[in-house]
Write a structure and sequence with these properties.
This protein is α/β, with parallel strands linked by helices. The chain contains 22 helices and 24 strands. α13 runs antiparallel to α19, α15 crosses α16 and α19 packs across α20. GO terms for molecular function: catalytic activity.
Length: 704
């Protein structure tokens, strides 16, 4: 079938669905920028199905009344509203019918629901109330450390959506039969059998998570907490149910800020501290004392958008945000700024905030080091890269290390440099340069220091990765990935040439031609697709919950003599230096030449969530062709890399600004002249009328 994806953004869920469905169906993507654009896209593509995997606006009636339109709702049947996962994680179990009473009394469930689901339903006039074509449920524990709105969405919700959408499309095809289009038989498809709504696809059981409700948008005011009264669990839930958007708005730190993190720390003894006091600081995060003598870690902060602000503020580590506001000093924060990487060499606790940790495992007389670096949204700042380098140094002090396995984070392996920190810095170009050089230092260990010592490196992709994160993994001797992982190797969409020695690792792994394609193509790859071109060495067909165990089992089976892509590559110091120099020369253009315009614009749009003006043509197949011509995105054109192109553009812009200023002055001056002349004419006319009225016998008769 022809399926048009209609999305607010082509995010992790829609990309996973796209990759899964592309093997069976003809697909195209349209971003829901406006009703006009949506209607135009449908008329161009003429789909059998309009699929909305991530949509925050209503589908125009002109679409759902003519085309079978499926909504992927992150909740079970009869659950409705734009904040389904938010209500789940704040502790709503559906037992209270009124959301006003629920919020007023704070009568949330002690344990929350034990199941949640994803429903594929048909778009109708009433939101989230159309006929159900499929739903898939999954178990959930809302108070497990690390469970946030974003982790639920990227993990079990995405997996359930894959099952439910595939089932819905199969059921629709079965209803149509071997011939005929959906549109010709749409009337016969309504309504679908009631069992589609009553029984989950896989378990064939009714929804096990309790009563479902229609709930409204969970607003910032609804998430506010009272630091003097609320427990650590209550505060944690309110923060985690808003991660990563919109954040939990609170004035607990002074000014109103959006809070992220919400990790409860049971190890900290906070009984001697007043609730709201910052009692610890670690890795850029702060720990705030709560009324029940516990601590809650706040990892990131974002300032409120004011009326005079043109866009949202970047989301940055908590410490840097507080320092930038000049309301806290380093002494007041009581932060330990030393890079004590030795403390990372053992797992402190799952209930303690810790970005980097190392777990050792014996393999006969040799040892394996599993390095976890769970950075928020996979972004690696200069400071985080420095701490990871320090962790490598300390591992290398230990004898008999046979292999280092990079585990990354469970949600993301790595997405490369930290765009939010760069955007928030006083000098974004300099911070970009520092960040890219520090992540290069990590890759240097993988390409030189570890091979020199006979230590094998393995990248275990348990979550998605992009840009520099893909290059970081590619530099390892072996790359293994979960079957669910999505890779976005190209830097071009964000406007960067990229570094991390990718000009060595990509050709070494994939060959020159395919390496060039990886650098220029901005389409996501599945783990299996990456394996077919050599970017990934082995794909693990394990569920995400069993992936850690599967990684360790696979590493144990690898021979001690690892045959790798590095065998036929020149990875001498001279070759590494040459590659780095070449890459950094291009990165310098992205930082300080006229070409920096492309990175600055795209970085700000990404960080500040600026709405795009059009759907990228690489996704919108229905807009690619115009007559005999194939249209390209700007990033796909050769001029995208030319400094002169941006230099000429800058001169044109300067000239346009001069003309614009001159025109403004001219129009303002001319308008002033006309306004003065008009005022003189009005004054003259008024004087004439007044003179005429004074000569009348009964002037009141002539006045309105």
């Amino acid at each position: 079938m022809k399926v048009l994806f209609l999305c607010t953004a082509h995010n992790s869920l829609s990309q996973r669905l796209y990759i899964a469905l592309a093997k069976k169906h003809i697909l195209s993507v349209e971003l829901a920028i406006s009703d006009t654009a949506i209607v135009d896209a449908v008329s161009l593509f003429r789909p059998d199905i309009v699929l909305c995997p991530f949509l925050t606006v209503a589908v125009p009636a002109e679409i759902y009344t003519k085309y079978l339109t499926l909504i992927v709702h992150p909740g079970p049947p009869d659950d409705a509203g734009p904040s389904s996962i938010d209500w789940l994680l704040i502790g709503d179990d559906g037992s209270e019918p009124s959301h006003e009473i629920l919020l007023k009394d704070q009568s949330f469930s002690e344990s929350g629901r034990n199941h949640w689901a994803v429903t594929v339903l048909q778009a109708t006039k009433v939101l989230d109330a159309g006929p159900v074509w499929a739903f898939e449920q999954f178990p959930v524990q809302i108070d497990v450390p690390g469970v946030t709105k974003s982790s639920i969405y990227r993990g079990p919700v995405t997996r359930a959506a894959l099952v439910a959408v595939s089932a819905a499309l199969s059921r629709i095809q079965a209803s149509i039969g071997a011939s005929g289009s959906v549109q010709e038989k749409i009337s016969s498809l309504l309504p679908p059998p009631s069992e589609f709504k009553q029984l989950s696809v896989t378990s064939r059981q009714p929804f096990a998570g309790g009563i479902t409700r229609s709930r409204p948008l969970l607003k910032a005011l609804d998430r506010e907490f009272d630091i003097a009264k609320d427990t650590a669990k209550q505060i944690s839930r309110k923060i985690r149910c808003a991660d990563s958007q919109p954040g939990c708005l609170s004035s607990v730190l002074g000014p109103k800020l959006y809070l992220y993190g919400g990790i409860i720390d049971n190890q900290i003894q906070a009984s001697s501290f007043a609730a709201g006091k910052i009692i610890a600081c670690r890795n850029g995060a702060i720990c705030v004392a709560t009324s029940d003598a516990k601590g809650v870690w706040i990892t990131h902060l974002r300032r409120m958008k004011r009326k005079q602000d043109k866009s949202m503020w970047p989301k940055v580590p908590a410490v840097s945000c507080l320092l930038s506001l000049d309301i806290w000093s380093m002494q007041e924060l009581a932060c330990d700024t030393s890079n004590d990487t030795k403390s990372h060499l053992s797992l402190i606790s799952a209930l303690h905030f810790q970005e980097i940790r190392v777990e050792f495992e014996a393999a006969g007389d040799k040892r394996l080091a599993y390095v976890y670096f769970d950075f928020y949204n996979g972004a690696m700042s200069t400071d985080q890269c420095s701490r990871l380098v320090g962790t490598f140094d300390h591992i290398l002090e230990i004898e008999n290390i046979h292999a280092i396995i990079l585990m990354g984070g469970s949600n993301y392996f790595s997405n490369g440099i930290h765009l939010n920190v760069i955007e928030a810095s006083a000098d974004p170009a300099l911070e970009t340069w520092r960040n890219i050089n520090q992540i290069n230092n990590i890759v240097f260990y993988l390409l030189h220091e570890l091979p020199r010592r006979g230590i094998t490196s393995v990248a275990a992709l348990r979550g998605n990765c992009a840009a520099g994160g893909v290059a970081l993994a590619a530099a390892c001797d072996r790359v293994i990935a979960g079957v669910h992982v999505v890779l976005n190797p190209s830097y071009r969409a964000i406007g960067l040439y990229g570094s991390e020695y990718h000009t060595l690792s990509y050709p070494g792994r994939c060959g020159t031609t395919k390496a060039a394609s990886l650098s220029h193509s901005m389409l996501p790859l599945s783990a299996c697709d990456a394996h077919s071109i050599g970017l990934v060495d082995h794909v693990l067909h394990a569920s995400e919950g069993e992936l850690d165990y599967a990684v360790r089992q696979h590493v144990a089976t690898l021979s001690s003599d690892f045959a790798t892509w590095k065998t036929n590559m020149d990875l001498s110091l001279a070759a590494l230096q040459s590659a780095q120099t070449s890459e950094l020369a291009e990165m310098a253009k992205d930082c300080w030449s006229h070409r920096a315009e492309r990175f600055n614009i795209r970085r700000k749009a990404f960080v500040c969530k600026i709405k795009p003006v059009a759907t990228p043509l690489r996704f919108a197949a229905h807009r690619r062709q115009r007559g005999d011509a194939v249209l390209l995105d700007q990033e796909e054109m050769d001029e995208f890399d030319l400094v002169d192109f941006y230099r000429v553009n800058a001169r044109r812009q300067e000239a346009a600004n001069v003309w614009r200023a001159a025109l403004h002055y001219f129009m303002t001056h001319i308008r002033g002249v006309f306004d003065k002349a008009l005022q003189n004419k009005v004054d003259s006319d008024i004087a004439v009328v007044e003179k005429q009225q004074s000569q009348m016998i009964f002037p009141c008769y002539y006045q309105s």
